[in-house]
Amino acid sequence: MSLQNDLTQKVIEAVKQLYEVELPTVEFQPTRKDFEGDITVVVFPMLRHVKGNPVQIGTKIGEYLVEHVDKVSKCNVVQGFLNIVIEDSYYLDFFNSIFDETDFGYVKTQSDDAVMVEYSSPNTNKPLHLGHIRNNLLGYSVAEILKASGKKVYKTQIINDRGIHICKSMLAWQKFGEGETPESSGLKGDHLVGKYYVAFDKAYKEQIAELIEAGTEKEKAEKEAPILLEAQDMLRKWEAGDAEVVSLWKKMNGWVYDGFDTTYKNLGVDFDTLYYESDTYLLGRDVVKDGLERGVFFKKEDGSVWIDLTDEGLDEKIVLRSDGTAVYMTQDIGTAIQRVTDFPDINGMVYTVGNEQDYHFKVLFLILKKLGYSWAEQLYHLSYGMVDLPSGKMKSREGTVVDADDLIKNMEDTAESISQELGKLDGYSEEEKKQLYRTIGLGALKYYILKVDPKKRILFNPEESVDFQGNTGPFIQYTYARIQSILRKADNVGSSAVETSLDLHEKEKELLKQIQLFPETVQLAAENFSPALIANYTYDLVKEFNSFYQQVSILGETDEHKKNFRVRLSQKVGEVIQSAFRLLGIDVPERM
Questions:
Q1: Cβ-based burial of 293 (10 A; exposed 0-12, middle 13-18, buried ≥19)
Q2: Does residue 399 have a pLDDT over 60?
Q3: Which residue ranges does the record assign to the DALR anticodon binding domain (predicted)?
Q4: Beta carbons within 8 Å of 190's beta carbon, 6+ residues apart
């Protein structure tokens, strides 16, 4: 039982004994730094149930706790706040109980119900870019946090491998590619295909300009540019199963998948299962027809099928066109149902998709609920804001995207430049240096993005992220490396339990209190689908450790019991940093 839960029961017991009143809840908060205490009971909410002066009420409750709770050594009241001082032995008992837990903070038993987390879900007409990086980092981290909280998790993506945009790259390669391949060009497959997506747009704009110059209205020219009509014809052939078009589609998509796999590996993310839009785009139509018979949907005069969500504050939404073809919503309905068919233990899904799709997912979730699927109550849209660079917005068609591969390389180069300036790499081999730059660069990128609440827009500054001071990944990695240096110098950490009779230094106690918060933080991060809670917890832990390191002698301590405890406490902090960063997909270096 946690300290707060235990104290809650005792405070309720005290109020019942003293005032013959049953409190429904007890409100706690951390004790302010300028007051003595480890945890504070807020007395003011009790005044709804207990009449009297808050200082007197707090004083009586405090006296009761000191008398009846062994771990409470003393109390003080400041206005309506009861500050409780906890015995050092309580924190040392806690430390002894967790010291051998290598995965402290993680829940090892998994629930029977699984959660499927979808992220990445790129188009196969261009490489991954900066926006995909935020998507991948968020989705992967949330999946790892859910696993650590005790959930069974499936990681997935749906690859958008069909549609007019795919045909544009295919047609441009046919027209301008001269048989170019990843091998002949030296380009990653996704970069090569993206090059022809840009080439299509360039040719398309040139044709529009020619048509306008010949007297065609702009709107008509945009619809009748020959290269666009050819792309539309290619899409029709693909849908009809034309052998030549399908063969080209498979070849070019294969190039892209190889490229994506390299980027995912470099980024450190993975998937348990993949879905392809070419397999799922026909799903959902039978579900809509069944829902039409049950009155969930209605048909308009032109034969199109809709759902009325005006009672829920939304509007009417089309789910089948008048010609019987599906819209994206229909496909998403079918895909969700298919996933539960494929994995019957799924009882919830998380969709990692940008906030421009907020409305789409409100509608999707409502429709699935109205169709009667119980798991539809456990659907969550992990909505996130855009990522901007100081240079401005990105545009795929114009080839001005911030490429994911380029950004990863840039982060490594930035880490190398700053590390060399600091001059801390004596004795490293070239290979060790290269690996360290990669660890620091990726850690900087991931932490900078994940420390921000997903819903907020980010202005990403690569140089600012690779700073060895402040709330950054490298600062936390450096602290971890410092701890490993302490452990190497200490040589022997010891395995026997720490003496609970030790008198704790204030900084030791604060550090133990911060460690105590880790399991709760993991659960809160899972409940809120927020890696930012893990990131900022880790920063607070590191700040607390550095304050301890600066004010308390570790290896220089002459008392062997104290020295042993401080070394072991440092080791535990290092383990928690590593565990927390693992949930963010960030590695920690043994030396820096």
A1: exposed
A2: no
A3: 476-592
A4: 124, 126, 127, 128, 255, 256, 258, 259, 260, 263
- Distance between CA 409 and CA 353 in Å, rounded? 25
DSSP 53-120: -HHHHHHHHHHHHHHH-TTEEEEEEETTEEEEEEPHHHHHHHHHHHTT-TTTT---SPPSSEEEEE--
Quote the CA–CA distance of 269 and 249 in Å, as a whole number.
Answer: 26
Between 245 and 108, the more confident residue is 245
Res 395: pLDDT: 46
- pLDDT band at 499; cut points 50, 70, 90: confident
**CB of 449 closer than 8 Å to CB of 267:** no
pLDDT value of residue 394: 42
State how far the Cα of 7 lies from the Cα of 13, in Å rounded to an integer.
10
DSSP 204-226: HHHHHHHHHHTT--HHHHHHH-H
pLDDT at 284 over 60: yes
Task: Compute the average pLDDT of residues 31-45.
Answer: 94
pLDDT, average across residues 299-305: 95
The rounded distance, in Å, linking the Cα atoms of 492 and 495 is: 9
Distance between start and end Cα atoms, the chain: 39
Say yes or no to pLDDT of 90 above 90: yes
SS (H, E, C) 317-370: EEEECCCCCECHHHHHHHHHHHHHHHCCCEEEEEEEEEHHHHHHHHHHHHHHHH
pLDDT at position 401, please? 65
Whether 563 contacts 508, CB under 8 Å: no
Percent of the chain residues topping a pLDDT of 70:
97
The per-residue pLDDT for 112 is: 87
Q: Does 315 have pLDDT greater than 50? A: yes
H or E element, residue 548: helix 531-551
- State the DSSP H helix or E strand holding residue 39, giving kind and residue range, or none if neither: strand 39-42
Buried/exposed code over 323-348 (b: 16+ C-beta within 10 A; e: otherwise): eeebbebbbbbbbbbbbbeeeeebbb
Tell me the average pLDDT across 58-78.
Answer: 96
Phi-psi region of 218 (alpha: psi -120 to 50; beta: other; left: phi over 0): alpha
The H or E element spanning position 387 is strand 387-388
With CA atoms as reference, report the closest residue to 360 among 377, 381, 335.
381
Cα 237 from Cα 162, distance rounded (Å): 12
Structure tokens at 129: 């870019």
Q: How far apart are CA 275 and CA 40, in angstroms?
A: 51
CA 534 to chain CA mean position, Å: 10
Residue 250: CB partners within 8 Å, gap ≥ 6? none
- How large is the average pLDDT for residues 31-37? 92
353 C-beta neighbours (distance < 10 Å), count: 19
Task: Pick the closest to residue 376 from 423, 426, 339 (CA basis).
Answer: 339
pLDDT at 532: 98
Farthest-apart Cα atoms in the chain, separation: 95
Structure-token pair, residue 175 = 């027209």
List beta partners, residue 83. Answer: 40, 76
